[in-house]
Amino acid sequence: MNKGNSALKMILTLVVIAAVIALAMSYVNRLTAPIIEQNAKDKLNQSLSEVLKADEYTVLSENDEAVVYGAIKEGQQIGVCVVNSAKGYGGDIKVMSGILNDGTVSKIEILEMSETPGLGANAGNEKFKAQYEGKSENIGVSKTNPGKTDILAISGATITSKAVTEAVNDAIVIAKQWGDK
Amino acid sequence: MNNFTKGFIKENPVLVLLLGMCPSLATTTSVINAVGMGLSATAVLICSNAVISMLRKLIPQKVRIASYIAIIAAFVTIVEMLLKAYLPELSEALGVFIPLIVVNCIILARAEAFASKNEVLASIVDGASMGLGFTFALIIIATVREILGAGTWCGLSVFTSGYQPATMFILPAGGFLTLGIILGVINLIKEGKKNA
Questions:
Q1: Residue A10 forms part of a structural domain
Q2: Tens of pLDDT, residues B30-62
Q3: Looking at the complex, does the CB of residue A73 fall below 8 Å from at least one CB of chain B?
Q4: CA distance B191 to chain A (A)
Q5: Which residues pair with A96 in a beta bridge?
């Protein structure tokens, strides 16, 4: 007598459990998928209007290296927003840079990073990000006395500072191809 | 009642049973994260305990672990989807630790040790007790780490000004130190009770 343990009963139990679970999960997924998608869209739009205020944004190009959005205000393209990444201390840092038609940085935003809290993660602070505003090309990183085209590195997080700068410099180069003709 | 209070002190999953150490260290960098993690685990624990207790007579011995894992994974996935939809910021902060609730040993341990042998209602109470005990422990660890490491509690400034946060407490090393010292204090209190 091994009533409770016959192979058929074991298989049946697992199949029934799996079926019920699949049903429940697909139901919740149907319920939440549109909201999750909307959240992602809202977040993107919020970041876009944060780095470069405009009426609407169109995707100009999208590849492995970067996504480029054109920022259109009153029917004219006033600049582009570039989303790209660079290797930081704790993994890739995803940066969005708003770049005006004249090639200067309007504002930058860190979209994703896994830098050390208290050190590299300070790259998310307004004070650090504001340093990029108005810079135009070959931005350098300085630990002590930043010149006109340099930014001051976060103390204890030179690798992070360099990574963000690299992403912004790349973004400026990419923006040149997509600027208003 | 005793069934409910045991999870907080006498059988606290983190501080006494030393289960679920990984999320206890990783998600306690801020009190908000700790509460989010604790309550998510509690929700999963209550639901999985209830369902497993209901099915305890139907599930054959030999496939019980597989069944438990499937049931737990289902609830974790549902919680994950709900968090992503309604609390996107929290879900981003907790990241991979939400899906990892599936393998949180507290949940499987309660399924095996309690829900598979007890009535549904008692299992729900057990799940709530253990889950809230887990949350309680996370809040204690996170309070120490956030106040020392960032100078804030729940994001609010604790010190007037001029406090230089000891960043180390937010880093993994600070997590181990905090946990070790808290466990030591608890053992000290227990010893004292025994001797008295």
A1: no
A2: 899 899 999 999 999 999 999 999 999 999 888
A3: no
A4: 37
A5: A83, A109
